[in-house]
Structures are given as C-alpha cells and as structure tokens.
Amino acid sequence: MPDLLKRSLDFLLRLVPARFRADIPVVPVVRLSGVIGMGTPLRPGLMLSTIARSLERAFATRNARAVALIVNSPGGSPAQSHLILRRIRQLAEEKKIPVLAFIEDVGASGGYMLACAADEIICDQYSIVGSIGVVGGSFGFPKLMDKLGIERRLYTSGERKVMLDPFQPEKPEDVKRIHAIQKEIHAHFIALVKERRGVKLRGSDKVLFSGEFWTAQNAIELGLADSIGDMRSALRERYGDKVRTPLIAAERSLFGRNKPGVSLSDALSNHPGLAGDLISALEARAIWSHYGL
C-alpha cells in the first residue's frame, strides 16, 4: 500500500506545472545590457527606472534558489550604475537569496559595478572586465565660431554656471574642478569594489584601479572575477539538471513598449527629437568601441 501511494503521488506530481513544483529549483534571470543611463525615446538606456520591476519580480519568484544577472555593458552613468547595484543588494538581503553575475562581452566601468552586485562573478573566457575609473569629455567650438562670425550670448547668475561651455575657450580652473569631481567619484568606486570583492582582490591599487581592462583569465588572477563558465552549465552544476531559468523581462505596455519602473515620460523628456536620438546613439557607439566592440 505505501508503494502504491508513493507511485500515485509521484504520478500526480508530474502533472503539476514545473513552475509550481517546490522540488524543482528556480533561478530567475535578469539581463543588464547596454550603455547605462543613456538611450533614445524608443530605446531607453539601462537605468533603475527601466530595470526595477524586473529585479523585483525576479527576487519574488517562487522557489528561487538564486538570482542570475547577465551583464553585458561598457558602463555609462556612475549614479545609475550605483542605484541599480543598491537595489539588487537591498532585494538580495531582504529575500536572503544569493546573486550570481555572468559577464558576456563586457562588464567594464559601470558594467563592472553592476557585476559587483553579485556574490560571485562568472565570465566567458573572451569577456572584457574591469576599467575601474572615471572618464568624461566634450568638444570645443570657439575657433569655429570665430571663423563663421558667430557671437556667443549667454546670461547667467552664478560665476561657475557655464563651466566647460563648449562655445568658449577652455579655462584651467574649470578643468581642475572637473578633475576633482572625477577623483572623488573614482574614490567611491574603488571603495565599493573593495567592499564587494574584499580579500579576493590581488594586486596593487595602482594596477587594479588604473582604469585598465582585462580578459577573463587576467581578471580572475587579479580577483576581479571568480571563474570562467556559462550560465547554463554553472547553474546545472549547482542546482541540478532540472533547474529552471526563466528570463524576467520588462513588462510590456499595450503597444509592446517596455514599461519603465517610474514613468516613460521621464525617459522621453531627456531626449527630445531626432538630434537627441542621434547624439545618444553616437555616444553609445563610442563607449562600446572603447573595448574594441
């Protein structure tokens, strides 16, 4: 009788959809891809507002043993990178769920900051990792304006309000000020990496935090990553062949667009018109090309 009952229960259990079975481990997957904090109206960049709901749904998944992050980003906004990292850590600590990051092509600069949200960083052998630094740049047009006979008229209140104006000659005091800001942001970035990676880091600060980037094996030797592998193999090794890995994508509106976590109008207001789209696309392309991609 006990054997018959067991066989009956096993049969009934097989009829239950996998997503409702407590005996089948689940590792929800969230993709963190693209330039951080940049985008166009139809393709918002990677920001907390565009990824928050996906993260919350992933950590709320029934029977989740861990959350996997697929990271493929050359960086971008340090503020948005940090906001996303903080939200991941808040959810991980609240739900007591470990986080695994899988770097694809690039996990560099702000993209590496996102990977640091994980308890373990796994790379493909061809992944580019690192670039722990701060960069900024612009163009200057004062000589072109003189040549074309264009007069710059600007009215401000506040003597530093037009710092680094591209239509005026560069001022040494402005450059000094922007360097000071970059140095402060860099120091915070270094402290965050040290906090998240801890004793795993090997190598001097001069090497680790110079802004240089490495392939996976060198990054592992420096302690910036943990191992080489792919998500499917790594999760099967940890949780068994039956592990489910549902991709938690952004929710879609009636017309198929992603629903951001705050408001779509926020993304649209920052990029008005075709000119904004073109500039955003060129800036994104330039950031990717920094890593040979």
Name some characteristics of this structure:
single chain, 293 residues, alpha/beta, 2-enoyl-CoA Hydratase, Chain A, domain 1, 2 domains
Structure explained in plain terms:
The chain has helices at residues 2-15, 48-59, 78-95, 110-115, 142-148, 172-197, 205-208, 216-221, 231-239, 264-269, 273-289, and strands at residues 29-33, 67-73, 99-108, 120-123, 128-130, 213-215, 227-228. With 293 residues, it is of the alpha/beta class. Strands 1, 2, 3, 4, 5, 6 and 7 form a seven-stranded mixed sheet that branches. It starts with a helix and ends with a helix.
Supply the helix-strand structural class: alpha/beta
Can you tell me the CATH superfamily of the largest domain? 2-enoyl-CoA Hydratase, Chain A, domain 1
Largest sheet: 7 strands, mixed
Please indicate the count of domains.
Answer: 2
Helical region count? Answer: 11
What share of residues are in beta strands?
Answer: 5-15%
Q: What's the order of the H and E elements?
A: HEHEHEHEEHHHEHEHHH
Low-confidence stretches: 260-272
How many β-strand runs?
7
Into which percent range does the helicity of residues fall? 40-55%
Going by CATH, the architecture of the largest domain would be: Alpha-Beta Complex
Shape: elongated
CATH topology name of the largest domain: 2-enoyl-CoA Hydratase, Chain A, domain 1
The radius of gyration over CA amounts to 23 Å
CATH class of the largest domain, named Alpha Beta
